[in-house]
What does this fold into?
Amino acid sequence: MKKIGVMTSGGDSPGMNAAIRAVVRTAVYHNLEVYGICRGYQGIIEGDMYQMLTTDVSNIIQRGGTILKTARSKEFMTEEGMAKAYEQLQAHGIEGLVLIGGDGTFRGANVFFEKYPIPAVGLPGTIDKDLAGTDFTIGFDTAVNTAMEAIDKIRDTADAHNRIFVVEVMGRDAGYIALNSGIACGAEDILIPELKTDMNTIVQGIRDDRRRKKNVQLIVVAEGDDFGGAVDVQKVLNEQVPEVDVRICVLGHIQRGGSPTFADRVLASRLGFAAVNALRAGIYQVMAGQINGAIVLTPFAEVVKQKANIPTDLQAMTYVLTK
Ligand code: F6P
It folds into this structure.
């Protein structure tokens, strides 16, 4: 193998740049040519790529976003799109790929590489942490810390006014950001897509808490919760406990940006290094992850089979710690 490509795909996540840096530097160290592919799968289809040298990845380890840009390509989901992508990779002489992305990226990889078996290794880059084969994904730690800092600020003003705040965090299909930021901020209720939301219990809890003069209440809801988002929760509370002042805050894309934490920078560096070494060792169609501190390579097909994996003790703990 002489020439490899690296791309970021799907929603960006803090630490993607640190991962690109690790991939480029490891590859160049081993005398591989590296091409940076812009805008993920769409960039492959359009042949939008350029050679990267070690200097191209200077001064990016601390930056959020991705210098290679990213996209969710609809065209790549079609037979024609995949055929075009394969032609472009052949035309550019790309013999191996490093893919940095989340659930959608690996679903695409699973289909594409089945038909066009180009050696590829993935890195888990998503704030959602909804992939199997790794304890943490690149960007998750930063996103949770961002959400935590924001919710702490909300608590100050909630306390000043004796208000209830419903804070909506990201996670279309996964509640890991909500669960972890909620626990870290001492939220009374945490609503996540993996567990059924019972609004009657939440309303009863608020009434009980008010009776015993607990006046600040934080409810953290994942955007993909089965009951709905912050607006839906606020509507029910306004109807059921009209005596209470309820405000909402949707944190949104603020959670995707910002300088990555040390944990995300180290994880990204380790996994980028491991991905290139896997390619060099002839281990393909796997994602490099970290489980119990060790690097683990998991086949693409397994990575997207992630089942809801919410530890049951956390709910019980949250209940006790907020009483
Ligand atoms: O996949 C990461 C994520 O941030 C999800 O948590 C969120 O639902 C989605 O991306 C938002 O995507 P977009 O930036 O396309 O609105």
